[in-house]
Amino acid sequence: MSEPRTEHLTAEQRAALEAELAELEGPRRKAAVQAIKTAREFGDLSENFEYHAAKNEQGLLEARIRTLRDRLNHAVTVEHQTDEHVGVGSIVGIADEHGDELEVEIDWPRRHLLMRTHTALHALSGVVFRDFGAKVTGGNMEPGVARMDFELDGISVEFGQDVERRLNEELTRGYPTEILYLARQEAMKDPDLIRTKVNLIPEWVEEIRVIDIVGLDRQADGGTHVASTLEVGTVRVVKTESKGKANKRMRIELVDR
Ligand SMILES: [Zn+2]
Q1: Which residues surround ligand 1, an ion (CB under 5 A)?
Q2: Is 239 helix (H, G, I), strand (E, B) or coil?
Q3: What is the structure's pLDDT at 3?
Q4: Which of 97, 128, 130, 208 is within CB 3.0–4.6 Å of 187 for a Cys-Cys bond?
Q5: Tell me: the pLDDT tens digits for 77-92?
């Protein structure tokens, strides 16, 4: 079983987050309150678009403040690590193909957001396969936003909303994610791994790394993930579109990012 993951921050990363929080709680909050005040003067609140937009903006701002506060309250400050393990805070020297050297450090907020997005995509593929029998045909992600294509005959806004509801319901159940290493022979017999095309992995790879969202989705995968679907937070399906026959796309984003 995996331990719940605590966010690790170096002193510099913590200071950067604290500065961002101060900006949001200071000038940005003041501006949001002022925008609502100004909009209110436009008249009748029920028909007042500016007022509702300003209230919505304020809601999003307050949600970001809560998320940041929560992260800072739970994060552990770490020293730069100097042992052989590369982790948050490690400064690692690497060289490119021309022999030019550079020093790199893991950008934890970016990495963590990618991990949450990645786990969200796997959960999405698990839900869509379980409830609609549709396989994944492609996908892509950036921190906080992603798209996934499915072998579906049709797609609609309502379908997107239905999937969004099902996905969020599953995420809140807190499925743990585990990393397994299976012998290639074994992996080739696993129905979930066959479904997600484990056969596309080059023949010379003998040990298959598997991300198991235990009870929801199992895929051969080389990427980084969060420890539980709870850590993903809430996901929105922002767009549904057809990319051709039996290739239907859903774009998602994480609400807290
Ligand atoms: Zn993946």
Answers
A1: 221, 223
A2: strand
A3: 43
A4: 208
A5: 777 655 566 777 777 7
